[in-house]
Sequence to fold (461 residues):
Amino acid sequence: MFSKETYQQRRARLIKDMGTGILLFPGNNEAAMNYTANTYHFRQDSHFLYFFGLDQAGLAAIIDADANEAIIFGDELTMEDIVWTGPQPTIAARAADAGVEKTLPFKELASFLKNALDKKRPIHFTPPYRYDNMVMLGELLGIPVGQLKEKASVDLIKAIVAQRSHKSEAEVREMEMAVNISGAMHVAVMKATAAGKKEAELAGIAQGIASGMGNGIAYGIILTVNGQTLHNHSYGNTLKSGQLLLGDHGAETMMHYAGDITRTCPVDKRFTQQQKDIYNIVLDAEVSSIGSLEPGLTYMEVHLAAARTIAEGLKSLGLMKGDMADAVAQGAHALFFPHGLGHMIGLDVHDMEDLGENYVGYSDTVKRSDQFGTAYLRLARALEPGFVLTVEPGIYFIPELMDKWRSEGKFNDFINYEKLNAWRSFGGIRIEDNVLITTTGHRILGKPIPKTVEEVEALRG
Ligand code: GLY
Ligand code: MN
Ligand code: MN
Fold:
């Protein structure tokens, strides 16, 4: 945990920003995997972690903005619990670590909220994403489960985004740690890559390092020879000479800050010329995007500049043609780069995505595009010091998408479909780093992770 003053200051800022009302934070519970006592790895809710720091199932908290008070609701272990789990600090002792003086048994939450509802006091909550908490909120607040998301408090969402978007120095130190563990995962995987190995074997190496050095993985490992499938979570393939291996994986620290790193390496010890050509375009887009980052610039501009770099690179290889500014404006580049350049990262790998991407990544002046590809950009608004974001351009050859667009005669002026035949089994390349926006520019978090063709090949031996 951070110091108790940290949590007190965060709650005080939230009270100031909200002004009035009851702010309700249901913590996460253990989640059954196949029967109640066999649970998934426990992950506390990130807002609960941010404002209360308590990494334990079965808690809820409220902040009463009018009374300037926080209460943590939770039950002490019974002797029977202790027999199975061992002794644990009391709820009051844990709450004191977060600077909270008042604790109550969990069942008191119902009467507390009923009392507030009777007095017609506003109760603010964020959009629930776990079904048990949906059922609980539905029952306690008298809201049909299907309406909970739309009844979530926009004021609370905005106040949380305003605060969590700017990482403190202590948070940045945690995030550097997350990146360093993630870097160790990538180096180990790239060193172990070889024809004949299974993707699962390499995913196991990554997972082992994440668990051994941190609190496990921050999101499902992507480690695949089918990098053209963006979020590919199966590991059944055996690596073959001539293929590329795309690894997108990162660790969580013990305090739950995430790293989100992607590297792509050849299964052989060297890239082929064709692989190098594409790799260097992606690298150029990544490095130049990072180089441009500074406060005030919108991430939409950075995304579109990366799309332009990718399109120009593909044109130089004869895969695209015509005016690349027009091609990007019309969305033709999205055949090869069909996702956004990046997203906020922090306690969540896609930070605060539970609150709604538009609240996190867009603003009154920067609105979401509805164009295929650019529509998937999760962060577009103007950058501010303290933001930590990912930069993750990629180039993918997706046979199904190429065939569809070709059959529709889509963007015939910009895409050389004939030439694409030689690239159908290429796969995909993505390169991703995590970057802090500083007052004057930016800083890539963590120790450098091999990234250029030369550095990756040196690692491959
Ligand atoms: N790891 C998922 C992503 O890069 O957003
Ligand atoms: Mn990633
Ligand atoms: Mn990412």
